[in-house]
Design brief:
By secondary structure, this protein is of the alpha+beta class. 34% of the residues lie in helices and 27% in strands.
Length: 110
Amino acid sequence: MAKEQFPGNDVVDIIKIVINETFEEVQDGSELETLAEQWTSTIEEKVLWNLSKLNKPFKYIVTCAVVQKNGACFYTAASFFWDNYTDGCCTIRWENSFMYCVVTVFGLTI
């Protein structure tokens, strides 16, 4: 029986919808410091919940970073030892005039 491949296109769609829903009413950066923690938790939880509804044989890991757009550098890295055919990851970077949001989903076949 062939193993299923990481549903990358579905994952990208889910991430984009959740990010847009989360930030659709954010008008300026005044709430960034007080709400960044809440936004990251909300995005991670909603993405994970929507991924579980796909009913695919995967374990998922979701990360989210919200950072102020102030000219500072932001670097992230990851290393993997996995099955390149079935496992995968997607990263989406969203931005507006005052912040960046970076969401990464890792999917590991069960």
